[in-house]
Automatic annotation (TrEMBL):
Keyword entries, A-Z: Endonuclease, Exonuclease, Hydrolase, Membrane, Nuclease, Signal, Transmembrane, Transmembrane helix
Listed transmembrane segments: 29-51, 58-79
Signal sequence segment: 1-19
Top-level taxon of origin: Bacteria
Highest classification ranks of the organism: Bacteria, Bacillati, Actinomycetota, Actinomycetes, Bifidobacteriales
UniProt feature, compositional bias: Basic and acidic residues: 113-124
Coiled coil region boundaries: none
Any GO molecular function: exonuclease activity
Protein's name according to its UniProt entry: Endonuclease/exonuclease/phosphatase family protein
Annotated segments matching region Disordered: 103-140
Endonuclease/exonuclease/phosphatase domain residues: 150-363
Amino acid sequence: MFWFLWIVLLVCVAWAALAAVPAGADAHMPLPYLIALVPLLWPVPLAVAVAAIVMHEWGLMCGAVAAGLVTQLYGAAYWTNYSPEDLSASIVAAFAKTASSRSGENSSAATSRDARRETLRETTDTSNETAEDVLAQQRTPSSNATLTVMTLNCRYGRANAKEIVGAVLARNVSVLALQELTPELVDDLNRNGLDALLPYRQLGDNKESDNGGFNGIWIRVEPQASQASAVAIPAADVPSITIPVDSLHDITFASAHPKSPMRGTHDWSAGIIGLGELADATKRHDHDFAVVLGDLNSSPYHPSFRKLLAAGFTDANLSVAQGPRYTFPRWTRWPRLILDHVLATPGIRFTSVESFEIADTDHLALSATLSI
């Protein structure tokens, strides 16, 4: 029994370690599903820990506690806003600081020379600045705009249109992103008054290759630009709407739905990672801010999703750090996964995030309040 429990723990740790494979390496069946289930493994080490206490096997108990912590490694960020990558960086920085302090006295003269060189280099660089460089440094939003955004997977167009419109009204939603739409649901939404609350919209093209339906995005104010698909990924179109924030800034909202792994693991991974181009576009000054909303069929446990965040996005749920907001499946309170997200590029701050039920669909809706 003793060795059997150790084997169970080792299997649990090996399973959890799948979340640490390189981005893109998770694009092989059944890795997306195994990785998605990692945060649900904690009952196994908990049961082993209880058995170890009964058996007075304290080493086994410590191993069970360690295994349980490993299964929650990426989920801890939902409470602490501190990822495993942050921890690794902090450890490296601590060692570097220690090494630097030990050699500080011996390198003071060299540091002084380096400082003089750096001062000279900065002076030279400044002399080459253009007017555009100066303006770029001064571009900070003058407004303190606060918006509530909402996203929902509509399950092949079956979601309750009346409840969607009711949520938009009750929560004062300014931007609504919907996935797995059908023309019939769009008409039903309008009959229930969505076009009066959010009169401007952009829909993706309705294609046979769509994964469950097309995507759409609605907004309260008149946009300055819109696209049927802001980025090319192997999935349904990613419709986007751009509005001005002030005279120097604009913000683009996009509704996205990468394919689920069952529709092809390589397309699943490529679709998630490909959304990073929207963050890259902000770096190219195509627009200053970007917000991506949708069912991304992934969580921070998936390396492909973490690569998307590394492209320049912040996740609302991780940023607020008040606990996970589960979004799938709707019909049970446990086990649930986090598949739906609101992501934003730097310059946008999230102040709240909430998941809630809408009838007749398999996902929970997700809303977030952001300020610019």
